[in-house]
Amino acid sequence: MDKNTVIGFLLILAIMVGFSYFTRPSEEELEKQRAAQDSIRAVHAEQEAQREIEYEEAERLALQKDSAREASMVGAYGEFGQFVSGEDKDYTIENELLKVTVSAKGGAVTSVEVKDYTNADDQPLILFDKSDSYQSITLVTATNKVVETKDLYFTATQKGDSILEMSLPFESGAITYTYRMHPNSYLVDYDIKAVGLEKYLSQRENGLDMEFDVRLRQQERGRKFENRYSGLYYKFLEDDVENLETEKDDAKKLTNKVKWIGFKDQFFSTVLISRGESNFTSVDLTSEVEPDVWTNSQKYLKSLDSKLLMTFDPSGAKATTLQYFFGPNQYKILRSFDHDAVEGEQLELDEMLPLGWAIFGWCNKYLIIPIFNWLGNYFVSYGLIIFLLTLIIKLILLPFTFKSYMSTAKMRVLRPQIEELTAKYPAGKETERSQATMELYRKAGVNPMGGCLPMLLQMPILFAMFTFFPSCIELRHQAFLWADDLSAYDSIVSWDTYIPIISSIYGNHVSLFCLLMCITNIVYSYLNMKDQPTNSQMPAMKWMMYLMPVMFLFIFNDYAAGLSYYYLVSLLITIGQTFLFRLFVNDEKVLAQLEKNKKKPQKKSGFMARLEQMQKQQQAMAREQAKKRK
């Protein structure tokens, strides 16, 4: 370091020291600063003390308000006023499958956990808790006062792990709720019994008004898909199972007797069932679709509300007997409740499953589900079970598939002759061309509709499979290959940015099984179109055949991976069948047989006769119109 640098540093140091000395505050200024800081601390202390006073005052006012409310309720509830204060304590009953929580305040079920199942985040599966549900029964006292049981504190008597009694004891009477669980069962008995309440309740009180509301939690990964299969279901006492709209808000007032109402999610349900003579005589139902936002650290699908009127005997001669079902929407479980039921008293809870109507539902119940359950007894991998199920279905449909292929083969070998007729009868002579084509088919023994009937016979099974997979709880959280849940979409690419139209229709992900299924469908369409006879409309038809798989990509992207996997396997097997048919079916032999048929006397079928008659009528009408124009 040279001399000039040292002098520079010393000058800078001297300037800094001098500046600090001449600008330092005086004693008076320091005293003012200390006084200002003391004032600030005093203000803060005063504010803190004021906040403490305000907090204590708020607590005092809240206690006064609660006391005043309790005092007013005591007066408003008459004899029931003695139950408006107490300790809000929770009681639990459980078995191997369920854990049910009942609150002392209101005496109602406030939380249900379905054991052995988890939600999409691998957390315990809670159907609802206190923040999601509301239950209350309305009573009318002898002095015409309206009492809500949600405001009353019940006395609990626990009898083991599976029986709980919640009661409101009077001097000479009581009303008791009894909850009873059975081993390895998703059913919970719920009995309401009054003893000696005639003098406490209105003499017109021969029915109970009950309100039961549940907000359905989102339990699965795909919200849009889950929302589509959730809703409010009900069964009339002597009629079918029906439901409110699932895609929009809906409400209904039912005046006929109702056997049960069900708050159904895609794979789990909460059902309130009437037993014996305790039917719901009047029911008001409301369903509102919830927005896709977080509320109380939870996402909800729908708000489902019900108001029920049921029979009630204040004397206690008969109890009001109800039953809850808290559990999975598994066909064999729901169906099992009707195995020993008397004719006309079946619950038909399985009708909540969207298995399809009429013939499609029959295919599911009597063909697909039995085969699926049978395979489940021998195989653990549900990917393998779906493959074997598809293979069995394909073997069942093999005769129809072969017949359809033979019809296509006959049309294919006649293609050169069809093209000759097309050249012989150019544009303007479509009627003559059509007649000549039909005559060729008749002589060769070819039915142009022969390939359609076998396909129509396969349609019920294809549509049944389409409805089966979204309702199959066995696939839930079952992994296969890259898919970690066969009941939800198998996303391999996803994004958070909202893309107009794409995100609302397609979603923010790409499902690999769906993508592979659509690519395979394009390949199958290409192979299939090669076998079709050409005509002037074929270019448009080809474009349509290739456009359909692209549309499937948008339709099935949100569907269960198991469904896309089934269609993928089905298409691959169909392509394999097509190559085998081509290997064993000789086009030259088919053509030789058709030429041989031409030499035989042919009897017109009823269809061909009617078709020719229609063509002759059209020709006659065309000639008549031509004469009129001249």
Report on the architecture of this protein:
- The protein contains 15 helices and 22 strands.
- With 630 residues, the chain is an alpha+beta fold.
- The strands form four sheets. The chain has a nine-stranded antiparallel beta sheet, with no helix packed on it. Strands 5, 6, 11, 14, 17, 18 and 19 form a seven-stranded antiparallel beta sheet that branches.
- Strand 8 (163-170) and strand 9 (173-181) form a beta hairpin.
- It is extended, with a radius of gyration of 38 Å.
- It starts with a helix and ends with a helix.
Helix share, percent: 40-55%
Share of β-strand residues? 15-25%
Overall structural class, as computed from helix and strand content, comes to alpha+beta
Please give the order of strands in the largest beta sheet.
7-8-9-10-20-16-15-12-13
**Mean model confidence by pLDDT:** 79
Net shape: extended
Main beta sheet: 9 strands, antiparallel
The low-confidence parts are: none
For the record, give the distance between the C-alpha atoms at the N and C termini, rounded to a whole number: 121 Å
Q: Rg from C-alpha positions? A: 38 Å
Q: Count of helical segments?
A: 15
